[in-house]
Every structure is written in C-alpha cells, then in structure tokens.
Amino acid sequence: MLANLETELQQLANPQKAKELSRFFKTGKGEYGEGDVFLGITVPQQRKIAKKYKTLSLAEIETLLNSKIHEYRFTALVILCERFSKADRQTQTKIFQFYLARSDRVNNWDLVDTSAYKIVGSFLYEKNCSVLYDLARSQNLWQQRISIIATYYFIKRDRFVETLELSKVLLNHPHDLIHKAVGWMLREVGKRDEATEKAFLDKYAAQMPRTMLRYAIEKFPPEERKAYLQQKF
Q: b/e string for 41-50 if b means 16 or more Cβ within 10 A?
C-alpha cells in the first residue's frame, strides 16, 4: 500500500510547481527549509490521496515522515491527523507520543500548522500542558512553533492562558517564523476576545518584534494599528 501511495504522488509531480515551492519554502543552503525536496503537488491533491490511504500503519507513516520529500511528510501528517480524530483515547495517546518523538520530521511551517493543534493541542486540552513549555524552550525551531500553534485548539474553545503564557516565552525569539506564529495566535485570541488580546498588547507591544506585532493587529482598525506600531519607536 505504501508503494502505491508513493507512486500516485510521483505521478502528480509538477517540476515547475516544485521549483516555485522550493523557493517559497526557503530550501536553499542556510535557509530554514534547507534540504527539503518538493514534487510540486497541490494540497487538495495530497489530501485526496491521504483519504485513499488512510489505513496506513504507523510504521508506514514513519517511513513517509523520514523522507526528504515534502509531500510525503505532508500526506503522512494528514493521515495521522485523521487517524487521531477517529481514535479511542488509548490510540490517541500512542499517536501523540509518536508525533512528539518524530517532531524533528515535522520540519516546515505548513507541516506544523496542519498538524500541531489537531494532535498536540487536542490531546493536551484536558491534561497537564507542561510539554508545551518544554517544546517552547527547546532549541528546535519546529518544536517551538508546534508549542504555540498547538494552542489554536484551545483558542477555538475560548481558552487563552496557554497562548498568552507561551507568547511571553517566545516574545524575544530571533526567527520570523516564530514571530508570525505568535502574532497569528494572538490575532486568533482577539477574534474570540478582543479585550484579552488588547490587554496583552498594551503590556508587551513595545517589546514585540515588529512582524509579530503586525500579525497580531492585522484586523484592527487603521488608527489602532498605527497607535500600537508607534509604541515600537
């Protein structure tokens, strides 16, 4: 079954699209996606194939995650998320542990964003969340992004404390992929509870990297955006 999935993905390869995606996801030497290989397949195409092969074993999913081909890893994570959503608690625990143990293979921002809140956030919602702070304080960029994106699951359920606390942990992070992730999650908090986001911004806006702040205030009226941005000077 795994060989069939790989064959179907290879048949959809689009060399021109692959070049575009390689540039977009920064795969050059020294860039965050260095070494990532793209076939040039659209997300809808990958999701369609994932649905067809949703019964892959964890061992087969691990094989896909170990590939340097981006679409193999993305498709594997789509399958894993679907498996998690339908699983009993015991199997969810196994998938959660599997995911964390292989988080080094969830190694581009779209891979994190499509899976972290669906697996890590969902699993931890009614549990001790200390692992999120461990991830945030790790030295791995993708684990750090997983930590904050996982809280999207909480935000959707009007729970903001972890997002706000992790935003403080990551406030001075040097990488713009973390700035964007934190700003995005703060913006999502604001969609649910504007007062909570603004209380955070009133305290920390002056310290926030500009990209983080811009993402956080993207939906604010122009005058409010201007007022917050002026705090950076």
A: beeebbbebb
User: What's the rounded Cα separation, in Å, for the pair 36 and 210?
Assistant: 28
Each residue of 88-127: pLDDT tens digit?
Answer: 999 999 999 999 999 999 999 999 999 999 999 999 999 9
Report the alpha-carbon distance of residue 231 to residue 117 in Å, rounded.
Answer: 32
Full-model pTM: 0.96
CA distances from 143 to 57, 133, 135, 164, 219 (A): 24, 10, 5, 17, 27
- Best CA proximity match to 109, nearest among 32, 222, 7: 32
* DSSP 8-state secondary structure symbol assigned to residue 69: B
Are 169 and 134 in contact, with CB atoms under 8 Å apart?
no
